[in-house]
Amino acid sequence: MSSTNRTSSPRTGDVANDGLKALVAELQSVKMLLMLQALAMGYKQKHLASALGVSEATLSRMMPKGFSKGLARVVENRSASRAED
């Protein structure tokens, strides 16, 4: 039997797993930014949910609390300012 200490050096599988976890976290962040951008551009939540293949309820749970109401005000203000131009 070998007496090597496995805790002192990470195994290749552990390093690869950590890399995959970091990649998944980054992709989730990018997905969230794209969703927020689409909503800020005026896309309706139900259309975005449909494009992502999730229910509106699931999409709502993915959003930060109170985000939809604040975003609705921003979109409304942006639309009003464009109408004045």
What does this structure look like?
This protein is mainly α and 85 residues long. The chain has one domain (12-84). It has 4 helices and no strands. The protein is elongated and about 60 Å long. The relative contact order is 0.08.
Instruction: Characterize the largest beta sheet: strand count, sense, and whether it forms a barrel.
Output: none
Q: What global shape is seen?
A: elongated
Q: What is the helix content?
A: over 70%
Q: Name the average pLDDT.
A: 80
Instruction: Note the total helix count.
Output: 4
* Structure classification: mainly alpha
**Through-space gap between termini:** 79 Å
User: What percentage of amino acids are in beta strands?
Assistant: under 5%
Domain count: 1
- How many strand units? 0
- The SSE string, one letter per element, is HHHH
Question: Gyration radius, to the nearest Å?
Answer: 21 Å
Outline the secondary-structure elements.
Blueprint: H1 12-40, H2 45-52, H3 56-62, H4 67-84
Helix pairs in contact: 2-3
Tag the structure with descriptive keywords.
single chain, mainly alpha, elongated, 85 residues, 73% helix
Q: What is shown here, in short?
A:
With 85 residues, the protein is mostly helical. The protein has helices spanning 12-40, 45-52, 56-62, 67-84.
